[in-house]
Amino acid sequence: MRINELAERSGVSAATIKYYVREGLLRGGDRAGYNQVSYDESHLHRIRLLRALLGLGGLPVAAAKEVIAAVDDPERTVHSTLGEAQRAVSKTSVEQVLAVADELGHPDLLDMLEAYRAAARQLATLEVNWLGRTDDRDTLTERAVIGTILGDALLTAARREAQKQASATRFTTRNR
């Protein structure tokens, strides 16, 4: 397919596709003649992955480049690629979060840490089992990235829904 069809099918402008190629986020198309380039389904798939990383995942381009490089590196393990995705999403540690809570006068956030860790262990086991549903290294590596970055977005959205419900249940009186 030509760039205009790729742009139409992906929902990304031709200029953005060219930018992705220049930045090394997307491999160039195959020459199909003078001043013509042909793209295939793998380009479409990569653009969709990039839109997820940059859009929903909120990654800056530089972080997305590092994640994509990890996905494309056949020498990296899935565990290593998962680590790269995690670094791209957050550089915050549990200790930093608790220190800020303490500075703001809420040291009792620490009281919930074990419950957070238990929920996180349960979720991590679920996610790693989801990763293991395939033996294909490329699919497995991509799932590690998707599970981390989109998983964070999904967890945040689901948590907000649950907070809304819990708040409506807990604070239904006028004075609260």
TrEMBL record:
It comes from the Bacteria. Residues 1-70 form the HTH merR-type domain. It holds the Pfam family MerR_1. This is MerR family transcriptional regulator. Keywords: DNA-binding.
